[in-house]
Design brief:
The structure is a homodimer of 233-residue chains.
Chain A (H helix, E strand, L loop, with lengths): L4 E5 L10 H9 L2 E5 L6 H7 L8 E4 L8 H19 L4 E5 L10 H9 L4 E4 L4 H8 L10 E5 L5 H9 L2 E5 L6 H10 L4 E6 L7 E3 L2 H6 L6 E6 L6
Parallel strand pairs in A: 1-4, 1-5, 2-3, 2-4, 6-7
Antiparallel strand pairs in A: 7-10, 8-9, 8-10
Helix pairs in contact in A: 3-4, 6-7
């Protein structure tokens, strides 16, 4: 007797943006592993708003650091725990915010579990930038437009080069490149800047106001979509 | 008395990959506008598998052509029809496959309806490339990786330049650039090629087999995710 493991994408934060398939996998799981701390977990906030038995949820805390050693030790020890549970026939779900294959740190666990020959499947979800576009009615990319998604590491010069080449640019983890964004915006007002924070929560914010965006300190959960504008004469 | 309009993303094709929010919007709509022909509609196939009253579904056919004139005339006439219905208090849903803000032709209608001062909201969905990654357990982008999404217009040289710069590349509408992909693969075997067709349907296919992929004629619903490999010595 062997259980199964599902990597379940929860979507960007708004509970109803979970898919039917993901909800079903959560409801069928005997144990739901969910990243967070005792006081803070975006994944748990989503689960709590859904018709799910919360007694099945096991929070785990992953140390945050550029050096991934401690984080990976945590993941390894949870994988060992999960392997033992699966051997006794338990069905396990592991949650990820947004989509589990799109910049998701729990994917390290999926790789590890797969390398242990454990049966793991993943269920797709709505990434945060897609949800951001929808809340503001933005057509992110259309027809023959090209898209670039950057994980918060960018200089003003690189941004200029991409937009001049006609790319629509999505910048995630915006707080990591605040000063470069401010520097870029000062001399490139011709583009369409769409700023979002805390998408899918009650603190959700969307702004296209140039003055607001250029002065702001960006919080952890913020992103920007920039559509290229015409070059100034 | 005025109705409301929802732009509803259906996800990539597998009915259960619709979000709870999108399903609810469809169930609450008096009329569901859905692109397709009498014989063929991917959107209708999805709707038929869901708990939705199919009598409320109105199919509309959009002429396919590079020249958007005829397509836009069709959209304009449906928008006029919808405006009249909304004025009598009807709630309208307009379906889009994948995500409605991500290369979706119905977005033209949303812009038109918004310009007519009609109340329209959009609901996010799972894009096809995200679902593709999930069916093969692929971590599409991780950590500090950058992503480019291209709508089927690419040369072998541009592809080489992007992958050499470390970008993960998603190519949609693969049938539009078959010969360039084949040409590129002949001399660039070091990269990881993930090929997908008909994601979310019973004809779903995923392959990472180099020989399979380089010989194939790509159908309309096909895409590729290429992760950059190490340069050959």
């Amino acid at each position: 007797m062997k259980g199964k493991i599902s990597g379940v994408s929860l979507g960007p934060g708004e509970p109803e943006l979970i898919t039917l398939k993901a909800l079903k996998a959560l409801q069928e799981a005997d144990i739901i592993y969910c990243p967070g701390t005792q006081t803070k977990s975006r994944s748990r906030d989503i689960l709590q708003a859904l018709p799910i038995n919360m007694e099945r949820v096991r929070l785990f805390h992953v140390p945050m650091s550029k050096d991934r050693t401690l984080a990976n030790q945590t993941y390894d020890s949870i994988c060992t725990e999960i392997a033992a549970l699966v051997a006794t026939g338990k069905n396990i779900a592991i949650t990820a915010e947004g989509d589990s294959g799109f910049y998701s740190s729990v994917n390290y666990m999926f790789d590890k579990l797969a390398s242990m020959n454990l049966p793991i499947t993943t269920i797709a979800g709505v990434p945060a930038f897609i949800a951001a576009g929808a809340i503001s009615g933005l057509h992110i990319v259309k027809q023959e437009e090209k898209l670039v998604v950057l994980p918060g590491i960018i200089t003003a010069e690189e941004l200029d080069s991409l937009l001049t080449s006609g790319y629509v640019v999505v910048i995630m983890k915006l707080s990591q490149c605040t000063s470069e964004i401010h520097r870029f915006m000062q001399t490139n007002r011709q583009h369409e800047f769409h700023y979002y924070e805390n998408v899918g929560t009650i603190n959700e914010l969307h702004s296209t106001n140039y003055k607001d965006i250029i002065q702001k300190e960006y919080p952890y959960f913020s992103l920007m979509i920039i559509r290229p504008g015409k070059q100034l004469a």
